[in-house]
Automatic annotation (TrEMBL):
PANTHER family: BLR5716 PROTEIN, DUF427 DOMAIN PROTEIN (AFU_ORTHOLOGUE AFUA_3G02220). This is DUF427 domain-containing protein. It holds the Pfam family NTP_transf_9. InterPro entries: DUF427, DUF427_sf. Residues 23-114 form the DUF427 domain. Transmembrane segments: none annotated. The lineage of its organism: Bacteria, Bacillati, Actinomycetota, Actinomycetes, Micromonosporales. It comes from Actinocatenispora comari.
Length: 123
């Protein structure tokens, strides 16, 4: 069965822009990422999400999971569990490896659930 695919528009706007904000991601007391090279995705009425380049954190802390989700505007997302210093955050990270063209700037970038890690964004 084909998945529904939608194009962002006036009824559901999505923008992706490079950001110079400093984004710091922590799991407990451990800093996992600290970058000024994210892209910010704004989608309809949702809070903005900063997608970090994959080199913003040590790949050794990422454990791929079998979890996937689908967004008709962005495509299929894959998930990772974070594991560091005995702490784990299951499915705390997602990425769109091959997102739809409207959001192609997020390809391969990593986003984090704010209820599973601490995210600080400084202008």
């Amino acid at each position: 069965m084909a998945r529904e695919r939608k194009i962002p528009g006036p009824d559901h706007p999505i923008t992706v822009t490079p950001s110079t904000a400093r984004v710091v991601v922590r799991l407990g007391d451990t800093v996992l990422a600290d970058t000024t090279a994210s892209v910010e995705l704004r989608e309809a009425g949702y809070p903005p999400v900063h997608y970090l380049p994959p080199n913003a954190l040590d790949p050794a802390v990422l454990r791929p999971t079998d979890t996937t989700t689908y967004c008709p505007y962005k495509g299929e997302a894959s998930y990772y569990t974070l594991a560091v210093d005995g702490a784990e955050a299951v499915d705390a990270v997602w990425t769109y490896r091959t997102p739809y063209p409207a959001v192609e700037q997020i390809a391969g970038h990593l986003a984090f659930y704010p209820n599973k890690v601490d995210i600080t964004v400084e202008p």
